[in-house]
Amino acid sequence: MLKTDKERVIAELAARLKETETLVVTDYRGLTVSDLAELRAKLRQHGARFSIVKNTLAKRAAEEAGASNLLVYLEGPTAIAFLESDGDPVGVAKVLGDTAKATKVLSIRGGVLQGAEIRAEQFAELAKLPPADVLRAQLVGAISAAPTAIVGLFAAPLRDLVGVLDARVKQLESEDQ
């Protein structure tokens, strides 16, 4: 690779590292070309791009981008999943975790989640969360449950009053007979 090409790659990678708030560094050693193509397609569905990077260039780009915390993950064959701003971190973590289990060769080293460093174990915990749509539905359910409970609390005394009045009417009717 020519020096100008290396400089261009470093500049592009540094720009991606600066722009991306969430990324996952993996070891892809042992994945076949078809495995990589399938993994890339699945990650794209969740808003992530999976790029194989050369460590020497990635290290220089990380230093240039001020992401020196990533340097510890850049050993051996390295691929990085860059999450777009509208991507689903839980979905990406699930895809990577499922691929790691299925192939037994992909391994997650660590990365950055919303600007904070995160270890491989934490990505595994993230993968256990329900999908974003399910979380949204649970949130809407929780929010709508509060007003329903309040209405029930206000309606309960009225229901009880109607019950008391009805009982009194029946009592008076039975005395008249």
Describe the model.
There is one protein chain. By secondary structure, the protein is an alpha+beta fold. It has two domains: 3-129, Ribosomal protein L10, N-terminal RNA-binding domain (Alpha-Beta Plaits, 2-Layer Sandwich); 131-177. 62% of the residues lie in helices and 16% in strands. The protein has six helices and five strands, in the order H-E-H-E-H-E-H-E-E-H-H. A five-stranded antiparallel sheet has the order 2-3-1-4-5. A hairpin with a 2-residue loop joins strand 4 (107-113) and strand 5. The model has no long low-confidence stretch (mean pLDDT 85).
- What structural category arises from helix and sheet content? alpha+beta
Overall spatial form:
elongated
Output the CATH topology of the largest domain.
Alpha-Beta Plaits
* Poorly predicted parts: none
Mean pLDDT across all amino acids = 85
Largest sheet: 5 strands, antiparallel
**Tally of strands:** 5
Q: Notable features of this structure?
A:
177 residues; alpha+beta; Alpha-Beta Plaits; five-stranded antiparallel β-sheet; 6 helices; 5 strands; 16% strand
